[in-house]
Structures are given as structure tokens and as C-alpha cells.
Design goal:
It is globular and about 75 Å long. It is an alpha+beta fold. Helix 2 packs antiparallel against helix 13 and helix 7 runs antiparallel to helix 13. The protein contains 13 helices and 17 strands. Strands 10, 11, 12, 13, 14, 15, 16 and 17 form an eight-stranded antiparallel β-sheet that branches. The chain has a three-stranded antiparallel β-sheet with strand order 1-9-8, with no helix packed on it. Strands 2-3-4 form a three-stranded antiparallel β-sheet, with no helix packed on it. The chain has two domains: 102 residues, Rieske Iron-sulfur Protein (3-layer Sandwich); 218 residues, Naphthalene 1,2-dioxygenase Alpha Subunit, Chain A, domain 1. Strand 16 and strand 17 form a beta hairpin.
């Protein structure tokens, strides 16, 4: 793989990304268009850290089973009888059959449709019908105890199911600590845990014909606001935004003049411990590799980027409201206004992402340039990606 990477992305291109921003180039076009790099990025970039897989709210009931595709890797999420969520490789220990192909919300167990081997929601093998012949369900020398499902390391934070495929990333609490500390000034832990999802005004999905990295780069910066988001720029102008770079795996931008509640005519409940002198502050953080977060005084949101191919990305968005009161009929119109406002903003980005993706095929593209002032968060992400490529080209 190292030799293949060097042919696809020469070391000199990676070195150019690592230069000071005024001299740097971005990642070359092949990093966005070469299909051979897709699984490399899954295993060596997304798989080596904590990546977003899905939202916990998708597993509606105890006994829910939800299959997930992680860049071609079949995974299975299960909510057990106690309400805990587990993630497994979606294959039977017997002959490697796909266990669950469609979402189930009232499952009694995890049963293989091929030979009916049966697992509980913890992944433990419980039944092996006819393993020793017709009517013989046990056989000497075979133990169910050591032949359960293969677990994937997982953790839930802010309602997001994170997975670490390699199993050797730092503890999630260590991974998320810089962001938890940064946002502690806005919301305390009890308050943050009080975020709630509405059944009808919390979700949207978009499919973008562009590489997942372009979505991260775009979200990191506010530079494009006046031209891509003219309506947003009117109430949250570029001049009132600031860059955020505060740890190796996070960057983004914030605003001093968040006024969506006034523009959209909403009066949603607010975080009770939000600093009084920062009521109009909002921050938008790219949590590398594939989770985009937004925090405002009256709601929060998360976007999980699910790469489908090197040129296609599925975006899954969830909005969170503050306290159970916010989910009542009284605030239904307000929730709808907030959801529609973000639907418009995220939708406006599509043409830019897809336009950049098409241009990455051009031999005239050599990585692009950076504004030393406006592109600092995006350059930070480029450097993070380039470093992981470099680590695998030695």
C-alpha cells in the first residue's frame, strides 16, 4: 500500500500541504477522485480514530437492530434489553452470512437467516441448531462462549454513535476532552445531557456527489458565506465570524452575532447555564474525521458524513432541542422554522461541494491555495489528513 500511495500521491505533494499556510498547497486531486484510496482512508484515517457511524435515536426500541454501511464495511447496531447500544461486524460466526439486512425494531434476538444460529443483543452465541446433525444442537469440542459476534469498539456522545474500527485509539473521553472543555463555558454536563430529539423536526438527509473531505473543509470556514449563503450572511455576516483551531483533530468557526431565533421567529427554550455575555455566540466545529457540530443558545445539531464512494457522501443531520419542554406542541412551529433554516443553509453548499469535486479531475488542479487569514481551519484539516497519508508512505 505504501508504494501505491506514493504513486497516487507523491510525498512532495504531502510535504507541500504541511508548509506554512501562506506557502502551502492543498491535498492533490487524486485524494478526492482515486477509488483505490477509499478503503485506505477507511482503515487508516477514519478507522484509526473515533468516527461517527449513526445516531442513537435510530435505534428506537430495546430490541432494535439497525444495519450500517461504513465505507463498504457491513456493521450492525443493536440496542439490548437494558437500553445499551452495541456495534458488531454484521456477519455470522458460522459461514459469514450477513445477519441483518433491514432495520428491525421488535427483534427478540439476532438470528442468522442462513442456518439459524442465534445471538443475543450482547453478541453472545446462544443457539446452534443441528450443528451435530438433524435434531442435535450441540457437539463435543464446540463452545458457544468463544464464538460470538465480533464487536466493534463504540461510544455514545451527544447522541452520536462513534466507532473505532482499529480498536486502539485513545479512550473516547480523552479524544473528546478538548471540545468538552471548550464548550463547558457554554453548557454544563447536566445541561448538555438534557438535549432532546423531536420525532418530526430533528432530522434531514442529503446525498452529495462529492468526496467527504470537501464537506469537512467547507464546514471549517466561513469565507464562503457572502456568496454561497447570502441570507445567512445578512444576520450572521462574515465580518463577525472567527476561526477556531484548538486541538489536532478539531477546527471550525464561530460567530458573535447568532440571531437565527429572531430571524426565524423562534422562541425555543435556551440553555440555562449559557453565559449571559455570550448569548449571541455560536460555534461550528469539525470533529475529525467525519462529524460536524453546531452549538447555539437554543439548540444544537450534528452532521455525520457517511462516505459512500470517493465521489459520493451521504449526510445525516440531527437537531437537538433544550429540555423536554421544547418538544411540546407549543414549540412545533419554532422547531420547524429552525429545521428549515438549516435545510436551506446545508442545501446551498451542495453546488459548491459538487463543483469542487468535478474540478478535482482536472490536470490543472495542483492542490489549490489558502488564504492565510480566512482558510486557517481548513488548512488545519488538510494537514491532519496529509499527516496520516505520510505515516503510511514510509
Amino acid at each position: 500500500m505504501a508504494t501505491r500511495l506514493q504513486k497516487t500521491i507523491p510525498l512532495r505533494d504531502l510535504d507541500a500541504v504541511g508548509k506554512p499556510i501562506a506557502e502551502a498547497k492543498g491535498m492533490p486531486g487524486s485524494a478526492y477522485t482515486d477509488e483505490t484510496l477509499f478503503h485506505f482512508e477507511r482503515d487508516q484515517i477514519l478507522g484509526k480514530t473515533w468516527a461517527g457511524l449513526a445516531f442513537a435515536s435510530e435505534l428506537v426500541n430495546r430490541g432494535s437492530l439497525v444495519p450500517a454501511d461504513f465505507m463498504g464495511l457491513p456493521l450492525l447496531m443493536a440496542r439490548d434489553r437494558q437500553g445499551s447500544i452495541h456495534v458488531f461486524h454484521n456477519l455470522c460466526s458460522h459461514r459469514g452470512m450477513t445477519l441483518v439486512s433491514e432495520t428491525k425494531h421488535q427483534a427478540r434476538s439476532i438470528r442468522c437467516p442462513y442456518h439459524s444460529w442465534d445471538y443475543d443483543f450482547n453478541g453472545d452465541l446462544k443457539a446452534t441448531p443441528f450443528i451435530g446433525g438433524v435434531g442435535v444442537n450441540q457437539i463435543e469440542g464446540f463452545s458457544c462462549d468463544s464464538n460470538g459476534l465480533t464487536s466493534v469498539r463504540s461510544h455514545i456522545w451527544m447522541g452520536i454513535i462513534f466507532v473505532n474500527l482499529s480498536g486502539d485509539a485513545p479512550d473516547f473521553e480523552e479524544f473528546i476532552a478538548p471540545l468538552a472543555h471548550r464548550w463547558e463555558a457554554f453548557v454544563s454536563r447536566p445541561s448538555f445531557n438534557g438535549l432532546h430529539v423531536s420525532q418530526s423536526e430533528s432530522a434531514m438527509e442529503l446525498t452529495i456527489q462529492a468526496n467527504w473531505k470537501l464537506a469537512v473543509e467547507n464546514y471549517c470556514e466561513a469565507y464562503h458565506l457572502p456568496w454561497v449563503h447570502p441570507s445567512l450572511n445578512k444576520y450572521s455576516p462574515l465580518s463577525e465570524h472567527y476561526n477556531i483551531v484548538f486541538t489536532e483533530e478539531m477546527s471550525g468557526q464561530g460567530t458573535y452575532v447568532y440571531t437565527l431565533s429572531e430571524v426565524a421567529g423562534t422562541e425555543l427554550p435556551q440553555f440555562g447555564d449559557w453565559p449571559a455575555d455570550k448569548m449571541r455566540h455560536a460555534e461550528y466545529i469539525s470533529l475529525y474525521p467525519n462529524v460536524l457540530l453546531g452549538l447555539q443558545v437554543d439548540h444544537a445539531f450534528a452532521m455525520i458524513l457517511q462516505p459512500r464512494s470517493c465521489e459520493s457522501t451521504f449526510e445525516k443531520v440531527q437537531l437537538y432541542y433544550v429540555g423536554e419542554e421544547a418538544l411540546g406542541d407549543r414549540y412545533q412551529a419554532c422547531r420547524s422554522s429552525v429545521l428549515q433554516s438549516w435545510r436551506q443553509v446545508f442545501g446551498e453548499d451542495i453546488f459548491a461541494l459538487e463543483g469542487m469535486q468535478k474540478a478535482r479531475h482536472s490536470p490543472g488542479f495542483s492542490g489549490g491555495l489558502f488564504s492565510p487569514v480566512m482558510d486557517i481551519p481548513s488548512h488545519h484539516f488538510h494537514q491532519w489528513v496529509a499527516q496520516r497519508y505520510s505515516e503510511n508512505t514510509g
